[in-house]
What we know:
Elements: E1 17-18, E2 21-22, E3 27-32, E4 40-47, E5 64-71, E6 84-90, E7 97-103, E8 106-113, E9 119-125, E10 137-142
Antiparallel strand pairs: 1-2, 3-4, 3-10, 4-5, 5-8, 6-7, 6-9, 9-10
Amino acid sequence: MAGLVWVTFALPARAPSVSGLAHGPFDMRLFGTPRTPNASGTGRLVYASSPFGVAVAKDGRARYDIEITATGLPDPKTLGPYTAFVVWATTADLAQWVRLGTVTNGNTTVGPVDFNKFLIVITAEASPTSNTHDGPTVLHGTSPSGWLQTFLSHPLFRNLPQ
C-alpha cells in the first residue's frame, strides 16, 4: 500500500530519573522505617526469565523479577540477632507472603513474583535462608499496580454520616 509508513518505538532500558530516582510504570520507591531512617531504595519490575519472551504464571498473570537498588542499609547485626536482609512480596491484605531472595546495599535482582498488586517488604532476619518473616522491616514499597488502589471501599470510609 502506497503511503504507509511503519514506525517502531524502543523503550529505554531505564526510565528517565529525577534526583537519581527512576520513575515510570515499572518502578517503585522503597522507604526506610524508624529502625532504618537512612535506608532507601528503588525497585524495577522486569519480566522473569522465559523462553517465550514474557513470563506468565499458569493462570496468565505476569511474572516479574525485581531489580532492587538499596542504599543506607546498616549491618543487620546492629538491629539485633540478624545476619541478612530478606526480600518478601506480600498481597495488599498481608495474607500471602513469598520469599524473593536476599539483598544488600547496591544492586540485586530477586524474584519471581506473580501477584497482581503487592507490597515489597525487606526485613532483617536471623538467616539468609529464612522462610518466615520474623525480623524488623527495614524497607518497604508498593507495586505500581497498587498505586491504583482506591480507599473508598475500605470499611473506614464506608457509611460516613452525611
